[in-house]
Amino acid sequence: MSALFEDHYAGAFPPPRKFQADAMRGIAEGLLAGHKNQMLMAPTGAGKTYLGLRVAHKAIKQGKRATFLCDRITLIDQTSRRADEYGLRDHGVIQGDHHRQDWSMPLQIASVQTIESRGWPETDVLIVDEAHTMREAWVKYAQERAARVIGLSATPFARGLGRIFTNLISPTTMHELTQVGDLVPMRVLSCKRPDMAGAKVNEFGEWQSAEAEARGMEIIGDVVTEWMRHGEGRKTIVFGATIAHCEELCRQFNEAGVFASTFTKDTEPRERAQLLAEFEKPDSSIRVLISVEALAKGFDVQDVGCVVDCRPLRKSLSTAIQMWGRGLRSSPQTGKQDCILLDHSGNIIRFAADFERIYFHGLDSLDDGEALDRQIRNDEKDERERTGCPSCQHKPFRKRCMACGFEIVQPSEIVHEAGVMQEIVIGKKKLADDKPHLWNQLVAYANANPRIQRKEAFCKAKFKDWTGDWPPRACSFFNAPEVPISDAVRSRILSEDIRRRKARAAA
To answer: 307 partner at 20 to 30 Å CA-CA among 203, 237, 336, 451?
Structure first.
């Protein structure tokens, strides 16, 4: 039976990039370590669909059955086309009365909405796309069934993910993908935004949709004007607060002579397909596509060169990152160099510090991600909002510039002058005999702690935070000798972790 699957599923996958190979290796190591449910965090442009289908392909070659679960109907055909491109043409589609419906196939591409109404196919491996959108059907399946589950998400920040997935794999960051050209830099223009002072909030702590809509309506003229001035006629996605807000935005764009359309939950399926087919064309007549959230997750049109954010948020960093990510994919065919973000929501300022952190470092744990989406951000003024990066004036800027890499270095607590061979003392506690000794202890701690996923990044970040400098060039993560971890080092790491958790709980 396995040989039969191999004949049908020889696969035509392009060779994996380094971080994709690292991701596959991380999943395999997690399985060997006994993790049934694992979360793969990978930014926009990292090829999550590619990785998910490779996992499915590997399972099928072993004679098992796999299901790739999509949380949006709009992603079904997109994923099915990708499977065809990779040589996985013999798959079934579980979604409404889809013409490729065939429950006998060992690979199924399924809509979670249809699964909720019809039940599950026989499955040994379940791949959950956009797994931060936690639907009861797959959450219960992951917790109660024996199938191995791989979650895919660029923003695994949802509350409770850490109770479902016991292992986080994070093979790359947005910064790394931008450095190699898979993503383009984001050029931000912070435009006129609605005044949300005193706006009512809902039970989840976000501003009520009606409040965001009413206040957003007041600046629609500015949205169209700023796009005409700065959008450079680029193919654009606009995010509004509500469907009514989107429709009014669309009306005013069209009145200004810009062909715009809305794409919301109210858009009929046939019209959706027509809109997507037209918008995907390099010379699309549709210059602006407007949505509340239907285009925020998994929607990939590479030559989108401008995102307009008109949906103010006070907690959901994950939603903001998903929206902005729609314009960050590179497009070598069109010569795309960057993506313009016209921020009419204030989100880029509210989330600047946390977005910088995710951009450069990713996540250390799912608990960290959950805390990011529970924290309320206030519209506090910051001088750096006005001046931008001290080196290149890029905005937004908090600590490390996403354009040129300039970083504000906090004064070190170390009492001795900088020197590789001097002992490391913070406060009154000696942490290490010298910098190499401190580095080797951090490596030992990281290797002994399975909760730390990006171990080398953890060591570098701690070393820089404690000493004010990066580790000496002679310090290697992979060749570091095993050394005992001093009580002072262990105590400092644990106390910092406790302080961080308390701060999040207070927030």
So the answer is: 203
pLDDT tens-digit readout, 446-500: 999 888 877 888 898 898 888 878 888 778 888 888 899 998 899 899 888 888 7
Cβ atoms of 384 and 397 closer than 8 Å? yes
Convert 415-443 to b/e letters by CB count within 10 Å (16 or more is b).
eeeeeeeebbebeeeebbeebbbbbbbbb
At 67 the pLDDT is 98
Are 340 and 231 contacting, i.e. CB atoms less than 8 angstroms apart? yes
Sign, CA dihedral 394-395-397-401, equals negative
Question: How much is the mean pLDDT over the chain?
Answer: 86
Using pLDDT thresholds of 50, 70 and 90, give the confidence band for residue 5: very low
SS3 category, 309: strand
Angle 487-506/435-448 helices, nearest 10 degrees?
60
- Report the amino acid identity of residue 374: R
Task: Report CA torsion sign: 483, 488, 491, 497.
Answer: negative
Q: How confident is the model over 80-97, as pLDDT tens digits?
A: 999 999 999 989 999 999
Cα angle value 93/97/101 (rounded, 5°): 30
**SS3 of residue 427 by DSSP:** coil
Q: In whole angstroms, what is the distance from residue 430 CA to residue 414 CA?
A: 10
SS3 for 157-184, per residue? CCCCHHHHCCEEECCCCHHHHHHCCCEC
Least trusted range by pLDDT, from 2-11, 137-146, 242-251, 351-360: 2-11
Residue type, 152: L
Please tell me the pTM assigned to this model: 0.73
* Dihedral angle computed from the Cα positions of residues 68, 72, 78 and 82, in that order, rounded to the nearest 10 degrees: -20
Question: Does residue 250 contact residue 279 with C-beta atoms inside 8 Å?
Answer: no
Q: Is the pLDDT of residue 8 over 50?
A: no
Show the domains of the chain with their CATH numbers: 2-173 (3.40.50.300), 177-361+378-387 (3.40.50.300), 424-506 (no CATH)
Radius of gyration of the chain (CA): 24
DSSP single-letter state for residue 452: -
